[in-house]
From TrEMBL, chain A:
Organism of this sequence: Cohnella lupini
Protein name: Carnitine transport ATP-binding protein OpuCA
E.C. number: 7.6.2.9
A GO CC term assigned to this protein in UniProt: ATP-binding cassette (ABC) transporter complex
Reaction(s) the record says it catalyses: a quaternary ammonium(out) + ATP + H2O = a quaternary ammonium(in) + ADP + phosphate + H(+)
UniProtKB/TrEMBL annotation, chain B:
GO biological process, alphabetically ordered: transmembrane transport
GO cellular component: plasma membrane
Pfam families: BPD_transp_1
Transmembrane annotation, as ranges: 68-94, 106-125, 131-151, 180-205, 236-256
Organism (species): Cohnella lupini
SUPFAM superfamilies recorded: MetI-like (SSF161098)
Keywords from the named record: Cell inner membrane, Cell membrane, Membrane, Transmembrane, Transmembrane helix, Transport
Record-given protein name: Putative spermidine/putrescine transport system permease protein
């Protein structure tokens, strides 16, 4: 299981003068779900299309199992893909869509019907087998697209922002469903998204991409708790990114040699009038800093404070548990800062 | 809960005036085609179907109708056979050529018929391709006339169904390009293609300027025939015009039905 299964070796791609993929190396184990996460234009979708064979490489190699895919046509790669727009065939019914790949491979009628029933059961749409795609909801269409890609039993499944066209609630349900199906089938999967929350929930491993490079990869925990660069810290959530001068003002000297720092919004304790929010504060190893609340946003289960402390604007998240009073805008608060939570960031591209 | 919006009398009378303006010539033509004598009275003195009878008994009319029909049919079929694969290849594989094609297809609009006809006659009346005055030059010219309709129609159909994505999806599922085109792309763009074809057909059927200048003396299409009969008898010409109008109306109805069917198909 530890052997790499899909291997990308130095993938390069240019569109005109702009470099879209700049020497990308990535190896994926069998049965692993790897997410390519990054802002739009970072090259993640292009990388996916390169694996699919829909975009030609300028350089590098793609190996799947023992086979070199680099110069194979898409139809010979045994790679399945789910498109952002689903790309279901409007002239075919749900079951005909699912059977299309098998038909192209010359499978018999009976085999196709059996397989199609199997997959309809998997995606829980047995009663829609004779419906045309345009009469399905977005979520249902996406499930059919998934079943269609899985029908031919590909070695790798590629998902190109499969949930971005759906509304929030369906998106959350469907991503859990996709993850369950992927685990059940032990399907090696590459998932492209620009949504960090989505990436954190579905992935075994996340690769953060920026400007055609993978800037950091690791498990969701690793990436969330120890971003290596400012870009990753900003992208992974609402990290407070501090310059050296700002960090000095809050934490004093002795913070190391890094040029920029990151501080998780939930690691800062908040002390105010009648408030003692933030767990085990105050204790000896924490620094107490005065601050003024700029604004308070209720995000549901989380309250997000924007606090001005010594001229540094910090984002602070508190669980909205109803037990502690909420600090008011313009109110005075004290912040309990834990130096061990201050992350040193590397320079971009280092 | 009155679902009908209230229409005031001003709106009604405006609409009435507009319809009157648009339909009066047609009604007058229709009446004239059915009148025996209509000189000094408000309405014709008496009625007759003789003009229509004359028309249908005139072999030249039927010949002209047939000539128009098969020339338009050949031209449109030729255009379909050439443009369908061409537009498909350009839209899907050579999108860089699109801006060039867009420029090219407005040319038939930009160049006046008379200019085009004179140019064509000069080019093709001598030299290696000497086809002036034959059906070949007419079919060639017709091909150019319907180029914008065919190009836009096919291209829009391809874009509406996101042909590139569908093709990619089909290829990923193991289909060869030609097979993907036949099994997925063609069935989805077919209604749109049929509509452009019918539209092109009716445009050609009504074409007069280019036809008359290019082959007017040799080949009598329905429009050329009509033009020649106008001076002979107003009644007969009216009958021809009305018949032609009815023919085009039937064609348009088919077109609209198909259009609705296609929309119904994609909306569910």
């Amino acid at each position: 299981m530890n052997k790499s299964y899909l291997e990308l070796q130095g993938i390069r791609k240019k569109f005109g003068d702009s470099t879209v993929l700049n020497d990308v190396y990535l190896s994926i184990r069998e049965g692993e779900l790897v997410t390519l996460l990054g802002p739009s234009g970072c090259g993640k979708s292009t990388l996916l299309r390169c694996i699919a064979g829909l975009t030609e490489l300028d350089g590098g190699r793609i190996v799947l199992g023992q086979q070199d895919l680099t110069n194979l046509a898409p139809r010979n790669r045994e790679v399945g893909m789910v498109f952002q727009s689903y790309a279901l065939f409007p002239n075919l019914t749900v079951s005909e869509n699912i059977e299309y790949g098998l038909k192209m491979r010359g499978a018999g009628k009976k085999e196709r019907a059996n397989r199609s029933e199997e997959l309809l059961a998997l995606i829980d749409l047995e009663d829609k087998r004779d419906v045309y795609p345009q009469n399905l909801s977005g979520g249902q269409q996406q499930r059919v697209a998934l079943a269609r890609a899985l029908a031919v039993q590909p070695k790798v499944l590629l998902l190109d922002e499969p949930l971005s066209a759906l509304d929030a609630k369906i998106r959350k349900n469907l991503r859990t469903e996709i993850r369950e199906i992927q685990k059940r089938l032990q399907m090696t999967t590459v998932f492209v998204t620009h949504d960090q929350e989505e990436a954190l929930t579905v992935s075994d491993r996340i690769c953060i991409m920026n400007k055609g490079n993978i800037v950091q990869d690791g498990t969701p925990e690793q990436l969330y708790s120890t971003p290596r660069t400012e870009f990753v810290a900003r992208f992974m959530g609402s990290y407070n990114v501090l310059t050296r001068a700002e960090a000095n003002r809050l934490f004093g000297d002795g913070i190391g040699t890094a040029e920029s720092f990151a501080l998780r919004p939930e690691s800062v304790g908040l002390l105010g009038e009648g408030m003692n929010v933030g767990g085990d504060v105050p204790s000896a190893d924490k620094r107490i800093v005065e601050g003024t609340v700029d604004s308070v946003n209720i995000l549901g289960n989380v309250i997000r404070y924007f606090v001005d402390a010594s001229g540094v604007r910090l984002t602070i998240d508190r669980l909205n548990d109803g037990r502690s009073p909420t600090a008011q805008a313009n109110g005075k608060v004290r912040l309990a800062l834990d130096p061990s939570q201050l992350l040193r960031l590397e320079k971009e591209g280092a | 809960m009155n679902m009908k919006p209230k229409v005031g009398w001003t709106h009604r009378s405006l609409l009435f005036l507009l319809m009157l303006y648009l339909l009066l010539p047609l009604v007058a033509t229709g009446l004239y085609a059915l009148a025996t004598n209509w000189q000094t009275t408000i309405l014709p003195e008496s009625w007759t179907l003789n003009w229509f009878k004359d028309m249908f008994q005139d072999l030249r009319f039927l010949e002209a109708l047939w000539t128009s029909f098969y020339l338009c049919l050949i031209s449109v079929a030729l255009s379909l056979v050439i443009m369908l694969p061409a537009v498909f290849v350009i839209t899907v594989y050579l999108p860089k050529l699109e801006s060039f094609m867009k420029g090219l297809v407005v040319l038939p609009y930009a160049v006046p018929g008379v200019v085009a006809a004179v140019g064509l006659i000069r080019t093709y009346s001598s030299g290696p391709i000497d086809i002036a005055g034959t059906a070949y030059i007419l079919i060639g010219a017709y091909f150019v006339v319907v180029l914008p309709y065919m190009y836009q129609g096919i291209r829009n159909s391809l874009l509406t169904v996101s042909a590139v994505e569908l093709l990619n999806a089909a290829e990923m599922l193991g289909a060869k390009r030609a097979r993907a085109f036949v099994t997925i792309i063609l069935p989805n763009i077919w209604p749109g293609v049929i509509i452009s074809t019918l539209l092109s057909f009716s445009v050609l059927f009504g074409e007069f300027v280019v036809t008359n200048m290019l082959v007017g003396g040799h080949i009598h299409t329905i429009q050329v025939y009509l033009y020649q009969r106008v001076s002979e008898s107003g009644h007969l010409a009216s009958a021809i015009a009305i018949s032609y109008f009815i023919f085009i109306m039937i064609l348009s109805t088919i077109l609209m039905r198909l259009g609705r069917k296609m929309n119904g198909g994609t909306q569910g």
